[in-house]
Amino acid sequence: MKLPSLSVPLDLSMFLGSKDLLGVDIGSYSVKITQLKNSKGKWSLSKYAIVPFPEDIVFQEINPIEKKAIISSLIKDCISKNNITAKNAAISVSGSSVIVRYVKFPKISKEDLAKSIQFEAEPYIPFDIKEVNLGFYILGEVTEEGQKKTDTVLVAAKKDIIQSKMDILYDAGLKPAIVDVDAFALESSYEINKDPEIQETVIIVNIGANVTNITILENGISRVVRDIFIGGNTFTRTLQKNLQCDFKKAEELKQKAGLLVTPEEKEQALKDDNKEALQCSNIMVSVAKDLLNEIHRSIDFFYSQRGEQQVINKILLSGGGAKLNNLEKYISQELKIHTEIFDPLKRIEKPSNFSLIQTCDFAVSIGLATRQLKEKQ
């Protein structure tokens, strides 16, 4: 499935023939940068870097213009330090400024839809159509009540959120060539790592600091895309509020404690008189339940669209929030669906000096790096 990217007025003529594309995932705590090579269908990791943000822009309020300047400078320094020569970049967006809709238009060709997308999309977009960039992908043709229709994924994102990320790239000396959506970047990342012989339905839950992307893929085709506002920071703020400590201390406790899921783990904590672990786990379980409920809602919606005979084979967790100790065990236990941490580099050849222990942070940037500039010419 060739996924939609957002139609942004960029001059791509200078990129014709270029195969080097950086996947740049600009998050709340860091920037993840990835460059891949594709040789005869086999992917290899060429460059990778994670750029953590300084504490003053993570834990304190800061002028947005100043924050963008700091992030641009960090990216520029990283590119220089890692001898990254590629200048073309793919970025992605998500959250309340991004809308993904599955729409069945009256039968229409791709060419005609491209010409009339502004008009056709307007009834489905809860924003002023002049304030968004649009993208679409035709899934196929379906028949409803005797009428042939074009099954389409429609994407819209506010121009200001896109422009903000593009400005960061420009100031870092990069050229934004493709604007994607986090959920579709995750799908691309999954596609290059799955066993091509296996047909399955999976849920990717990408837990960022403030937003979690939930994507349900049925045999490689996205059927549900949702962004929810529960993330790693939600766990931290809940600890902060209940324990009356500052955000930084709450973050440290979150990383140290994690969730106690099994009776054996809880008994061991009691035996060791580890009151801190018990207390933190009890507090964070309330957030984990909220996240679980949102995953359940997504599954219910999927069943309502595709039929309850469908089987969810597994759940893949990615993003920084996925590293919360025992979260995958908790979700697996509660939903009775196998859950694991997604490795977006599982089937990608890695350099001999590769040193990352946990790779789930790179799921979006790796997906972005797989996009081809020729798709958008």
Q: Helix count, per DSSP?
A: 11
Strand content: 25-35%
The 3D shape can be described as globular
Elements, N to C (H/E): EEEHHEEHEEHEHEEEHHHHEHEH
Mean pLDDT: 90
- Pick out the low-confidence regions: 9-18
| Structural class label | alpha/beta
What is the CATH-assigned architecture of the largest domain?
Answer: 2-Layer Sandwich
Q: What's the N-to-C terminus distance?
A: 18 Å
CATH topology of the largest domain: Nucleotidyltransferase, domain 5
Question: Quaternary status of these chains?
Answer: single chain
**Rounded to an integer, what's the Rg over CA atoms?**
21 Å
Q: What is the helical fraction, as a range of percent?
A: 25-40%
Please provide the count of β strands: 13
How many separate domains make up the residues?
2
CATH class of the largest domain: Alpha Beta
Q: What is the topology, as strand order, of the major beta sheet?
A: 3-2-1-4-8
Largest sheet: 5 strands, mixed
What layout of secondary structure does this protein have?
Blueprint (H helix, E strand, L loop, with lengths): L21 E5 L3 E10 L2 E11 L2 H4 L5 H18 L6 E6 L4 E9 L3 H12 L10 E13 L2 E12 H13 L3 E7 H10 L9 E7 L4 E7 L2 E8 L3 H12 L3 H11 L5 H9 L3 H32 L7 E5 L8 H9 L3 E3 L21 H7 L8
Parallel strand pairs: 1-4, 4-8, 9-12, 12-13
Antiparallel strand pairs: 1-2, 2-3, 5-7, 6-7, 9-10, 10-11
Helix pairs in contact: 2-4, 5-11, 6-7, 6-9, 7-9
